Amino acid sequence: MTEDPKRPTLLREQSLRTRLRDKTPLFGLFCELPCPEVIEIAGIAGWDFVLIDCEHAPISDTSLPPLLRAAAAAGIPAMVRVASNEPSAIQHVLDAGPAGLQIPQVSSVEAARAAISASRFHPLGRRGLNPFVRAADFSDCPTPAFLASSNQQILSLQIESVDGIQALPEILRLGNFDVLFVGPYDLSQSLGIPGDVTNPRVFEAGARIAAATADHDVVLGVFVNAEPEARRWLDAGVRYLCYSVDTVLLLKALKSTVSRLRELAPPAV
After folding, report:
1. DSSP letters of 90-154?
2. CB 3.0 to 4.6 Å from 179: which of 45, 46, 156, 192, for a disulfide?
3. Sign of torsion, CA 102 23 14 173?
């Protein structure tokens, strides 16, 4: 099918919406390094998407656009986790032109409503309009097409607290978002077991989120560190799975390689 030539190039290349509606799980990599080459390598390696972390990683407003350009060059969709639910933080990221947005610490219906409002243009929200930014191909995209495409960008809400789970029925009634993402680390803190992300209580809390999404047009997402965890969450219905972090995978590969090399070295005489 031929793409609409008037749709923004960045969104045309990086749309995740159709694939999210399929039953096949998508696998993404959390990116903490402000390094475009890491994004390109993830695309070359065949990951379905990257999730650039502006909440915890040293990624600024100025270092984000080169990462998004690297994603476009490698043909890999780039989601971005914003630093906060503040409209200004959301605005700067969206204007840079990601494939979609992930909002951390959504613990109430009010927080969810604010996230949706700041992420969507009228009539779905109150996002500030500037048709000259990278997301609009620097004004080369007609404003009506920019507005329509932007309101179709993937929006993921992170549920990572007991309060967030309790607010799920009201949050799900809002609509206008695509993914409910289980944040296991902060969820473990909320449960009083900080860092114990493989504790059955964390999975049970996640299962409550999965059950809540069953009757809604929302995809379940999660972050995991290891393959056994990935299998368990996939069996629970996750289709948007973020596996580990670029720094962790790099560290593991480097440690493993140097260890094997030392085993090859002859013993000292």
Report:
1. HHHHHHH--SEEEE----SHHHHHHHHHHHS-TTT--PPP-TTSGGGGGGTS-HHHHHHHHTTSE
2. 156
3. negative
- Cis peptide before 169, with omega less than 30 degrees from 0? no
**Is 56 assigned a catalytic role?**
yes
Q: What is the third-level CATH fold of 9-264?
A: TIM Barrel (3.20.20)
Distance between CA 71 and CA 77 in Å, rounded?
6
Q: Which of 173, 72, 36, 66 is nearest to 116 (CA)?
A: 173
**Sequential pLDDT tens for the chain (269 residues):** 344 545 555 544 446 778 888 878 999 999 999 999 999 999 999 999 999 999 999 999 899 999 999 999 999 999 999 999 899 999 999 999 999 999 999 999 999 999 999 999 999 999 999 999 999 999 999 999 999 999 989 999 999 999 999 999 999 999 899 999 999 999 999 999 999 999 999 999 999 999 988 889 899 999 999 999 999 999 999 999 999 999 999 999 999 999 999 999 888 87
Distance CA 49, CA 71 (A): 9
Strands 49-53 and 219-224: unpaired
56, 92, 122, 216: the catalytic one is: 56
What is the rounded (10 degree) CA torsion for 219, 156, 174, 9? -100
Give the ranges where the chain is alpha helix by DSSP (H).
9-14, 17-21, 36-45, 64-74, 87-96, 109-119, 143-150, 162-166, 168-174, 184-190, 200-213, 227-235, 246-264
Type of residue at 159:
I
Count the residues in the chain: 269
Residues 6+ apart with CB under 8 A from 128: 87, 91
